[in-house]
Write a structure and sequence with these properties.
Blueprint: H1 20-30, H2 35-42, H3 46-60, H4 65-74
Helix pairs in contact: 1-3, 1-4, 2-3, 3-4
Length: about 80
């Protein structure tokens, strides 16, 4: 029987847990973008960005932007731009 993975946490293959847009939003968070800035960057509404953020938080089991970026860096979903 295969082990059951916690779907809230990324795995080595876990990049698939986040959509390309969610990864792009995370990249924007790493750049320090606000919600309105992200909406302008992706030409979507602020509510759409909030929806993406909610999905990211749920999938990464975090509750705010800083935790999302930290988790994404830890799980190598993003690379630090320094």
């Amino acid at each position: 029987m295969a082990p059951v993975l916690d779907s809230r946490l990324p795995t080595a293959e876990g990049k698939a847990l986040l959509t390309l847009r969610e990864l792009s939003v995370l990249d924007g968070l790493l750049d320090g973008c606000s919600t309105p800035q992200l909406a302008a960057r992706f030409d979507v509404s602020v509510n759409t960005v909030k929806s993406h953020l909610g999905s990211i938080y749920r999938k990464l089991a975090v509750s705010n932007r800083a935790e999302a970026v930290k988790a994404a860096l830890h799980h190598r979903l993003l690379t630090n731009k320094e």
